[in-house]
């Protein structure tokens, strides 16, 4: 049984930090109830009927000695009414509080703002139930959070498909602060518009931080048999990688985050086949229907030229015009099979000085018009010749023109790590990175490493491989859970 221990105090004065504060309490505690996980609680407060509530915020005090930013959020009165947490005239309202520390007391400040610009701050102490997260709650601390690090983010979303309560969100102290409630493991999860999108069979489900969930849409009617690899940010919605019968891992669809409507579809089988035929080549020896010849594992939208960047682990990184679907360029290992075809070589970017091509890459993203990815170093598994294979993996960033790719950043961890499959490299603000070596060793551990703008390791946490493969954290995204706004 979940237990909550709570106390409440009201902070009252006339002026606090330039704000007008209620001179007498208009809000009192009604009760606190646990949510669907130990990381969620619902604080209900009584409100004088004459008070006109406009917004409510909460902030969770970091644990003693922590330098993480507090998890905090603000709810507008309209949002609370729309979600059933506030009915004007009822005399009370409920504040969903998420991101609690499990198994300990949390100090939560709830601040209410009224139409006359007055505010009232109430402090609620909540002791949340313990959570047994296995390796997630007991990682090996290779390096704890660096004291006074300049790291720009404090939270990471681990895409853990080997557990049902995915994704798992940790803070920069390695504390688990939130887990999903879909009841089904899945490596495709994305924080988008203050909700987390995950797959469930042939459907996409949106998880709310307060534990609610709803199915956005089911795609079986258009032939989708499964979602694979990742969800990414698109131009108009969410980019998803899907399977169809006889067409594994070679199609991307973009869906509307609210309605689930399909906005765009990119099927790489006809796109590449048509380009090869137009260039005088027979695609039959490269495009292999029914086989995993392409193996798409990530996508990214590039605003500067309105293009879609697609990672094909088997072959290369390829970029298409977002609307016409015409191939713009290809970046990849020239010792692989794709380079045997003049029609595909014609799209190949020239490598700049001291530039290595990506091999078996994952987690492509565009940051300030530059291409960032995890270069796994793993050769092809189907297309022949298989190409080069390295003995290490490394995050790499490229500066791009229409004809060249120049490597402008790489990170070689010491000692080196080889993670042949899965894994990610993402950037938050400039030069603040999160690297996930998913099967470091290979196949020994999942190593999550943060790098701050000074080039220092901000933290380094090592997790056990739950399924012996990529299921602990297929990818890891740096995210922000401070100052969220729900309107």
Descriptive notes:
It contains 4 helices and 37 strands. The protein has 487 residues and is mainly β. It has 2 domains: 5-127, Immunoglobulins (Immunoglobulin-like), CATH 2.60.40.10; 134-480, 6 Propeller (Neuraminidase). Strands 1, 2, 3, 6, 7, 9, 10 and 37 form an 8-stranded mixed sheet that branches. A hairpin with a 5-residue loop joins strand 4 and strand 5. The longest helix has 11 residues, at 268-278. It is globular, with a radius of gyration of 24 Å.
What topology emerges from the helices and strands here?
Blueprint: E1 5-11, E2 15-16, E3 19-21, E4 27-34, E5 40-47, E6 53-60, E7 72-76, H1 77-82, E8 92-98, E9 105-114, E10 118-127, E11 140-143, E12 155-158, E13 168-171, E14 176-179, E15 190-192, E16 195-200, E17 203-207, E18 213-218, E19 224-233, E20 238-244, E21 247-255, E22 262-267, H2 268-278, E23 296-302, E24 307-312, E25 316-321, E26 327-332, H3 342-345, E27 350-351, E28 362-367, E29 370-375, E30 394-400, E31 404-410, E32 424-427, E33 433-439, H4 440-443, E34 445-451, E35 457-464, E36 476-479, E37 484-486
Parallel strand pairs: 3-10, 7-37, 27-31
Antiparallel strand pairs: 1-10, 2-3, 4-5, 5-8, 6-7, 6-9, 9-10, 11-35, 12-13, 12-36, 13-14, 15-16, 16-17, 17-18, 19-20, 20-21, 21-22, 23-24, 24-25, 25-26, 28-29, 29-30, 30-31, 32-33, 33-34, 34-35
